[in-house]
Amino acid sequence: MAVLLKVEGLKKYFQVGQGLITARFGKSVRAVDDVSFEVQEGETLGLVGESGCGKSTTGRCINRLLEPTSGKVHFGDIDVRKLKGKKLKSYRRDVQFIFQDPYASLNPRMTFGEIMAEPLVIHGIGSRKEREDRAKEMLQTVGLSPEHIHRYPHEFSGGQRQRVGIARALMLRPKMIVCDEPVSALDVSIQAQIINLLEDLQGEFGLTYLFIAHDLAVIRHICDRVAVMYLGKIVELGGWKEVYNSPNHPYTQSLLSAAPVPDPDKQHHRARIILRGDVPSPIDPPAGCRFHTRCPIAQFPICKDVEPPLDQVAIGHRAACHFAKSFPIPESKM
Ligand SMILES: Nc1ncnc2c1ncn2[C@@H]1O[C@H](COP(=O)(O)OP(=O)(O)OP(=O)(O)O)[C@@H](O)[C@H]1O
Ligand code: SF4
Ligand SMILES: [Mg+2]
């Protein structure tokens, strides 16, 4: 499979505060701090981590909703950071975004038909009739009635609204979709339906997904590979089976220990790893390994002094821990 998206050394720092102190010492939020990964054509890469670890910022840098501070983003042979004007517009057509909150992301004053036709209007595609026809067709594709084009978002449930959000993203026939927690705001019973829909659409339209989530369990059925983020960095990256069954980073292990397991017997016997303390501030992240303030197996001084590289632990599987291959790995089969 060909590489569709290649991200190298991506950084996004936000300058914070107008005060004398922050200005003088150049304080910034290191939301994304040297992140590299690839997404192959037709695959789904999951990007997982706790709130505030930099997932959305990574996604937004990829389709230039935010300007990266440094690093490279390549989409096929396109250098995304160099794009301007029409070429940037055309790139954004190819890489769409689905947002977390189906309540906030749809304009309440527009009908579903208008909401869905809007991307075509922006890109000057089709006549009014053609846009309406495509909107009807897309509504059917995502399991809604074509008659719904005349209805407003408030008339529908969260799951139905998210279907419209997905249909809207598909209107321009994109190659890739950044799905930013598309099911987090939905009831558990609806989450699986939306995930199944996204999976079906991937097969039908040959889509590539970057799927952002804070819960590993949510994405286990849809992802081919998983990247785990902690405080602006990727700490583990690999095929989902390898990451789920043999997590090599203590942070991934703790996330997995918190995820529910379908088998109640296994759930009962599985030890929950509770991390101490809170996630440190990305304004002043810990030196060495950023996870050392919470890591249950941290060794000093190495973990405090030396940043662990994202090294290979098996073919296609990397982890950023000095002891990645040397500690016992708890059972976490899902
Ligand atoms: N515009 C901004 N200005 C300053 N800081 C920001 C800005 N946007 C995001 N941040 C900070 O950057 C860090 C990463 O934020 P981001 O939204 O990417 O996290 P996330 O992993 O998507 O979290 P969540 O799961 O809550 O959506 C956070 O500390 C956040 O407060
Ligand atoms: S490098 Fe040290 S602190 Fe970091 S995850 Fe590994 S053991 Fe824990
Ligand atoms: Mg987010």
Features:
single chain, 334 residues, alpha/beta, eight-stranded mixed sheet, four-stranded antiparallel sheet, 12 strands, 22% strand, disordered C terminus, binds adenosine-5'-triphosphate, binds iron/sulfur cluster, binds magnesium ion
Report on the structure:
With 334 residues, this protein is α/β, with parallel strands linked by helices. 33% of the residues lie in helices and 22% in strands. The chain has 12 helices and 12 strands. It has helices at residues 20-25, 55-62, 85-94, 112-122, 128-141, 158-170, 188-205, 216-219, 240-245, 250-258, 264-269, 302-305; strands spanning 3-15, 28-40, 44-48, 70-75, 78-79, 95-98, 176-180, 208-213, 225-230, 233-239, 311-314, 317-319. The strands form 2 sheets. An 8-stranded mixed β-sheet has the order 6-7-8-3-9-10-12-11, with helices on both faces. It has a 4-stranded antiparallel β-sheet with strand order 2-1-4-5, covered by helices on one side. A hairpin with a 2-residue loop joins strand 4 and strand 5 (78-79). Helix 4 (112-122) packs across helix 5. The radius of gyration is 21 Å and the shape is globular. The site of adenosine-5'-triphosphate (ATP) has 14 residues, from strand 2 and helix 2.
Strand and helix order: EHEEHEEHEHHHEHEHEEHHHHEE
Q: Regions with pLDDT < 50 over 5+ consecutive residues?
A: 329-334
Distance from N terminus to C terminus (CA atoms, Å) equals: 27 Å
Radius of gyration: 21 Å
Q: How many beta-strand runs? A: 12
Helix content: 25-40%
Bound molecules: adenosine-5'-triphosphate, iron/sulfur cluster, magnesium ion
Overall shape: it is globular
In terms of structural class, how would the helical and strand content be classed? alpha/beta
Largest β-sheet summary = 8 strands, mixed
User: Could you tell me the strand content as a percent range?
Assistant: 15-25%
Placed side by side, the strands forming the largest sheet appear as: 6-7-8-3-9-10-12-11
Roughly what is the average pLDDT, rounded to an integer?
90
Q: What's the number of helices?
A: 12
